[in-house]
Amino acid sequence: MTSDRSELLQGTLELLVLRVLTLEPMHGWGIAQRLEQMSRDVFSVNQGSLYPALQRMKRKGWVRSGWRVTDNNRRARYYELTRAGERQLATERAEWERTSAAVNGILDWQGSFA
Amino acid sequence: MRRLSDLIARLRSLVFAAREDRELAEEIRFHIDKETEKNLATGLSPREARRQAHIKFGGVERMRERTREARGVQVVEALLWDIPRAVRSLRSSWVVSVTALVTIALGVALTTTTFSLVYGLLIDPLPYPSADRLMGINLTAAVGGPGQPEFEALDLRDFRSSQTSFEGVEGYFRSAAALTDADGFVQSVIAGVVTAGALDAVGVAPHLGRTFRAGEDFRSDIGQVVLGYETWIQRYGGDPRIVGRTVRVDERSLEVIGVMPPEFSFPVAEGIWLPMDFDMPTTDRGSGRSFDVFGRLRPGVGVAAATAEASAIVARIGAETGSPVTLGARVHPLAERHLPGGLDSMLQAMLAAVAGVLLIACANVTNLLLARALPRGREVAIRTALGAPRHRIA
To answer: Which pTM value belongs to this model?
Structure first.
């Protein structure tokens, strides 16, 4: 049901895809499966929105793609993290932790104002 | 580095557009197939499995379109797609196209030509700085007088001593002079004979040297000349040390004190400028050399005020010097001095008429285009329903 699933922002989606790709090169459907598993089913809407995101990341040089044959002898396009992509992951991860810490700080505010 | 790889990626998307579309289609097919397999494994019927896979994917066409957009070549692709169609559509109804083209061309050509005329003759005719402040000062006489009165040297002197409206009041007239050039050939040139401050009042700085200084007029011993640029180049070979040398003009040796910039002329087409080198007459009026007078209005002074003051001064001078009729003065833009009367209203009427023609031309072409657009109603509706943005439908 879509009511259980959460919305994903475009920038966050790219961050998560970068993270997934550090495990191993993967095709689009595989990335979607990993996202589902790793988020324990919270993120699994609109799998199709992966492809515009992957295209953008390709243009920015964070991933590269190549056609390979799968275990079942089918052709699929695999995506792989580049060095620039690794650097970008580190940057965005740091930024994410900064932002979420700040949001949490406000939500959990217990102290007083100076 | 990122910019470069981005640009390369875009170029590749442009060149290999068809291939990238095919590959994306295959990629999406693979995705949906895998998701269908997964659903089958959970026990759904084949039809339901595929349907659920599609739902989870989102709209396939929409995703394809968004991925295409993410390639960053929409603008160029849109152009490549639209331009051949536009050309074809123009050619298929070429009578309409040619009519529209000729109509607009005529309207624009007429208006542009007329406006150039108006601009050149009325709006900005004089190529000098702040030329709209340059005013011609003419004398007028009450009816019954001995013809058109004109300024003479003594009149100018008296006028200058009383006036306050102008930064400078100067005089000029045109004459001819025999110029001996560097090779010894003698040729006639048009000479502008000016008062000392005239060239400065016009406001254009000399290219070389200087113009006449205060006091360098109304004496017969000023042996100086200012050359025009073209004269300097053509008759003296553009000699860089021309300033200070003497040249022969009308059998006299004159010192060149300066050269004016290219394409400068005052008032029209002079080759050289000479000072007014006749002595200021001591008593006689009405027998000396007369000339045209002009002045640059002081900032903040209007034409009406200047006219009033000039008329008063001139009337007083006339009375003091025993003029038989009452004299007055007319102050008008210098640019108008050499235009025939009534020209500006005629030109303005022409401009209005031609603007009307342009409007009619535009209305005609609008009608033609409207007639062409009506049968396309269905096409526009379908394309809008498919999601085309407005700028791609036109």
So the answer is: 0.53
